[in-house]
Design brief:
Strand content: 25-35%
Shape: globular
Strand order of the largest sheet: 1-5-7-4-3-2
Distance between the termini: 42 Å
Radius of gyration: 17 Å
Structural class: alpha/beta
CATH class: Alpha Beta
Order of helices and strands: EEHEEEEHEEHEEEHEEHH
CATH topology: Ribosomal Protein S5, domain 2
Number of helices: 6
């Protein structure tokens, strides 16, 4: 497994409890638990709280077909979150099976988690986060997944949940805006094919991005700030004071 973190030695004791019902999430949670167990050997109970929250999420991406045509894709991730008793620094583990995360994706995700925590006025120094990509052999790359992962971790820390038919494509900018990404049109087509209900996108369009159409029956929500993106994703405010300032 790959691990990028600010401090510490890694997660300790994990009791995986799915935050949403369903056999698919249960299988995903069991898979992540199996991946986590070897990393927890030798940990002491004082290193972490006794339970980990688990969320199955979907991310939007672009990929190339065998004929080298660009198409959209929907990939599933499992995100596990635990609150430790210490404050030795956030710890983020990227598992290398079934799928992998590129170095650039790891860097973007770690940054997004920290920025989301700051915007939510939470302290991430006691957080242990683990991520697994569920598509065997696929490498998740780029930064467009980072807002989705960062806000999912914030939701788990706050006790909120993310409906599995909602997704964000975008980055978390240092000023709290949802940063632009490429390939939105292709991603929306993929979201429609997978029967997702709502896609949150940045209202700022990337320079290289052309015009895209809104697929039939897909709710597309362009937003400018991370706070609005979080509310669209979870139906809850990221932080009460931030929510009022944006209205």
């Amino acid at each position: 497994m790959d691990r990028r973190k600010t401090a510490g030695t890694g997660p300790a004791v994990v009791d995986v409890r799915p935050t949403r019902p369903g056999r698919r999430l249960a299988r995903a949670a069991a898979l992540l638990a199996a991946l986590l167990v070897p990393a927890l050997a030798g940990a002491t109970p004082s290193q972490t709280e006794p339970a980990s929250k688990v969320q199955l999420i979907r991310i939007l991406a672009t990929t190339l077909t065998q004929s080298h045509d660009a198409v959209g894709a929907v990939t599933e991730l499992v995100v596990a979150f635990a609150q430790r008793a210490d404050e030795r620094g956030i710890e983020v583990t990227f598992h290398t099976q079934p799928g992998r995360f590129s170095i650039s994706a790891q860097t973007e995700v770690l940054s997004a988690i920290v920025r989301a925590a700051q915007l939510a006025r939470l302290n991430p120094d006691s957080w242990t986060v683990s991520l697994a990509a569920l598509t065997p052999g696929r490498t998740v790359s780029g930064g467009s997944l980072s807002a989705m992962v960062g806000l999912t971790v914030a939701a788990l820390a706050k006790g909120d949940s993310v409906p599995t038919d909602r997704v964000i494509t975008g980055t978390i900018a240092p000023d709290g805006h949802l940063g632009p990404v490429e390939g939105i049109g292709l991603k929306l087509e993929a979201a429609q094919k997978k029967h997702l209900q709502r896609v949150i996108v940045p209202d700022q369009v990337a320079v290289t991005e052309g015009d895209w159409r809104n697929p039939f029956l897909l709710h597309v929500s362009p937003v400018d700030t991370v706070g609005k993106a979080y509310e669209a994703l979870t139906d809850h405010p990221l932080h009460e004071m931030i929510y009022r300032e944006e209205d």
